[in-house]
Amino acid sequence: MNLFETTALAAGAGAPPNAGIVNIVFLVGFVLIFYFLLWRPQSKRRKEHEALMGGLSKGDEVVTAGGIVGSINKVEEDFVKLQVGPQLELRMQKSAISATLPKGTLKTLDDA
């Protein structure tokens, strides 16, 4: 019986008085880690991709997310017409464009 009484007293002792401050510091730390490792880089990538899509113009050489390489013939509101061969033109969404290539890249690919 004496064992139960000491256990009950030990359980009622509670946490140290500064436990609330420590918990708040850990919470703020987790929020900062989440912001700098996940949210901020994703936001930066999204802004860069939006700038890429907004800056597309006729004659740009691009590569799509699927790996198709071509030259832009026409820019529409949400789509671009992509020249991928001598007589082959594809209509693709602007969001499918993953990168622009330096001028002359298609010429060097055709020569290889």
Description:
- This protein is α+β, with helices and mostly antiparallel strands.
- It folds into two domains: 2-52; 57-111, SH3 type barrels, CATH 2.30.30.
- Helices cover 47% and strands 26% of the residues.
- It contains three helices and five strands, in the order ααβββββα.
- The protein has helices at residues 2-11, 19-54, 105-111, and strands spanning 61-64, 69-75, 79-85, 88-93, 97-101.
- Strands 4-3-2-1-5 form a five-stranded antiparallel β-sheet.
- A hairpin with a 2-residue loop joins strand 3 (79-85) and strand 4.
- The protein is elongated.
- The mean pLDDT is 86.
C-alpha termini separation: 89 Å
Rg: 29 Å
Listing every helix as H and every strand as E from the N terminus to the C terminus, the arrangement reads HHEEEEEH
Number of strands: 5
Give the percentage of residues in beta strands: 25-35%
Tell me the count of domains. Answer: 2
What assembly state would you assign to the polypeptide chains in this entry?
single chain
Report on the biggest sheet: 5 strands, antiparallel
Q: What is the CATH C level class of the largest domain, in words?
A: Mainly Beta
Strand order of the largest sheet: 4-3-2-1-5
Shape: elongated
Please describe the topology of this protein.
Elements: H1 2-11, H2 19-54, E1 61-64, E2 69-75, E3 79-85, E4 88-93, E5 97-101, H3 105-111
Antiparallel strand pairs: 1-2, 1-5, 2-3, 3-4
